[in-house]
Amino acid sequence: MDVLYFAWVRERIGHPKDKVETTAKTVRDLVNELSAKEERYAVAFSDLSALRVAVDQELTHFDAPLAGVREVAFFPPMTGG
Amino acid sequence: MEIRVQQAGFDLGEETNRFANRQEGMGAVVTFTGIVRDLSTGNLDVMEIEHYPGMTEKALGKIASDAMERWNLGDILIIHRHGRLQPTDHIMMVATSAPHRVDAFQAAEFLMDFLKSRAPFWKKEVIGQKAAWVAAKDEDEESLSRW
Questions:
Q1: Taking each helix axis from N to C terminus, what angle separates B101-118 and B55-70, rounded to the nearest 10 degrees?
Q2: Reported ipTM exceeds the 0.90 cut
Q3: Which residue of B lies nearest to A72 if distances are taken between CA atoms?
Q4: Which fold has domain B2-146?
Q5: Taking 90 as the threshold, does the pLDDT of residue B113 lie above it?
Q6: Three-class HEC string of chain A
Q7: Cα B11 to the chain's mean position, in Å?
Q8: Cβ of A79 and B115 within 8 Å?
Q9: Looking at the partner chain, which of A4, A57, A75 has a beta carbon nearest the beta carbon of B122?
Q10: pLDDT at B37
Q11: In a domain, A53, yes or no
Q12: Which residues in chain B have their CB less than 8 angstroms from residue A58's CB?
């Protein structure tokens, strides 16, 4: 599964993309798995209310299931326009 | 519907004319343009706009389709830039056409409200050696509830 990071999430983690092998059932499980991996992930994910998540390029929530998912992206609230 | 996500600048007059000239039977064209302004201190050097290629196009397409369903519209144009922009540069534009002005105005407002907080763009202000991500505003999120 590809895990993508944008804006300050990308900067805190230090790169734009990870390829992960995971058995995580939900986005929240994936967040916990990544946070346990390294401190910089734990820091980036420390306040989930400041983050948004997209699964296969659709905005969703942290309890969304990951079965069959190809791409998960984490980013701050969007500031378009 | 025409949706363009691009690094290059665009000519507002040309885009507006091209859009307006291809509308048949439409009595109204509304356009909105977002311009890089110096948000905080008066010495903004650069506005960097990051986006999520793939999702951006899908999200804008969804927002535009929702507007087409909701109002009696002829057509929609959305152009949004990314990359490094300077103060006074045009960031984005939307244009709507409709038989009557109310639909064109309302749809343009709807597009802008959703584009602000549902399209995956992130703005960063660069002032000298310092750079800061622009925080999303609560009122931008709240403005979605009126639709």
A1: 150
A2: yes
A3: B55
A4: Aldehyde Oxidoreductase; domain 3 (3.90.1170)
A5: yes
A6: CEEEECHHHHHHHCCCEEECCCCCCEHHHHHHHHHHHCHHHHHHCCCHHHCEEEECCEEECCCCECCCCCEEEEECCCCCC
A7: 14
A8: no
A9: A75
A10: 84
A11: yes
A12: 55, 58
Domain extents in chain B: 2-146
Instruction: Kindly report the pTM of this predicted structure.
Output: 0.94
Collect all residues with Cβ–Cβ distance below 8 Å to A67 and sequence separation of at least 6. Answer: A25
Closest CA–CA distance from residue B123 to any residue of chain A (Å): 6
pLDDT at position A20 over 80? yes
Residue span of the structural domain in which A55 resides: 2-75
Q: Which residues of B touch A76 (CB under 8 A)?
A: 122, 133, 136
**Number of domains observed in the structure of chain A:** 1
Q: What residues contact residue B73 under an 8 Å CB cut-off, 6+ apart?
A: B67, B96, B97, B98, B103, B104, B107
Q: Tokens representing B61?
A: 């397409």
A21: domain CATH number is 3.10.20.30
Q: Rounded distance, CA A65 to CA B87, Å?
A: 42
**A44 inside domain:** yes
Q: Is residue A68 a part of any domain in this protein?
A: yes
In a domain, A55, yes or no: yes
Cβ–Cβ < 8 Å for B73, B67: yes
pLDDT, one tens digit per residue, over B6-54 is 999 999 999 999 999 999 999 999 999 999 987 666 788 899 999 999 9
